[in-house]
Design brief:
Helices cover 65% and strands 8% of the residues. It is α+β, with helices and mostly antiparallel strands. It has 3 domains: 2-73; 77-208, no CATH class; 222-265, no CATH class. It has a 5-stranded mixed beta sheet with strand order 1-5-4-3-2, with no helix packed on it. Strand 3 and strand 4 form a beta hairpin. Helix 6 packs across helix 8 (181-208) and helix 7 (144-177) packs antiparallel against helix 8.
Length: 271
């Protein structure tokens, strides 16, 4: 720490404070690098460079912390549900801005919400009846807790997606309802049905492309096999879990080699 003691007091305090922001796994190397940068700028005697480095030090620490959060939460079910909830809040704020006050908005939303409670189950039934969900053979099917956790995530995600579709349809039709209330009601139902079907299709596709264990989004699909050899060998795409839990094999077409998608668990490293 001899280099740090040679720094001015302000730089030492700033370095210690910013180091607390940096993730622990990267803190040592980050601190040594910035100590050398600050020491070099200080002994050159150029104050402007020191100020620029101090600002860069803080921005770098914040970026590393943000990047660690991105890697930690990227593709997680927590991020998915939080994003949907955040979009619902934004849609509610837009509706409040259109109405001008909560007193004006609440009667309109209450009436529309009663229709939503009737229409939503019908839309869900139609989506399940007409949707082409992919059947996946899974070696985790017998694990009850994993299956319950997966289904609970799907239910909450679907409910938030439907609520978001309802709020978006209300936002679109709220300005029209002030002058043409009957027309706005019909348009609101139409927009909700269309948006809800799109949202449910997304929920199905998103659920199929998540890890069976951690529910993180799988990596981008990679091509496996040769399309011209459908009758001779298996070909299709594979998506791997970033945490190493397994991979999803999706055949290009049904054949004697592979008739449906399959979730394959991977052995832990070193086993």
């Amino acid at each position: 720490m001899r280099t740090e003691t040679a720094l001015p007091r302000f730089d030492r305090s700033l370095l210690r404070a910013a180091a607390r922001i940096v993730p622990a796994s990267e803190r040592g190397e980050w601190r040594r690098t910035w100590q050398a940068e600050l020491w070099h700028a200080h002994h050159r005697g150029r104050r402007g460079d020191g100020l620029d480095l101090s600002a860069g030090l803080v921005r770098d620490a914040l970026w590393l912390r943000g990047d660690s959060w991105r890697r930690m939460f990227s593709g997680t079910p927590t991020l998915c549900l939080a994003s949907l909830a955040g979009l619902c809040m934004v849609a509610m704020l837009f509706a409040l801005a259109f109405a001008g006050s909560w007193r004006e908005l609440s009667p309109h939303l209450a009436e529309q919400f009663r229709r939503f409670l009737v229409a939503a189950p019908l839309v869900v039934f139609v989506a399940f009846a007409t949707g082409s969900r992919r059947y996946v053979e899974s070696s985790t099917a017998g694990r009850k807790l994993l299956r319950i956790r997966r289904q609970m995530f799907f239910v909450v995600k679907t409910a938030l997606a439907l609520l978001l579709c309802f709020l978006l349809s209300a936002d679109v039709c709220l300005p029209i309802s002030l002058r043409f209330p009957n027309t706005a009601e019909l348009l609101q139902i139409f927009f909700f049905v269309v948006l809800a079907l799109v949202g449910l299709r997304w929920a199905f596709a998103d659920q199929e492309q998540r890890c069976e264990q951690c529910l993180r989004s799988l990596a981008l699909p990679a091509r496996v096999g040769r399309p011209s050899h459908n009758l001779l060998e298996w070909n299709g795409t594979e998506q791997r879990c970033g945490q190493g839990h397994g991979l999803l094999s999706v055949p290009e077409m049904e054949s004697s080699w592979r008739q449906r998608s399959q979730w394959v668990e991977l052995e832990p490293a070193g086993v």
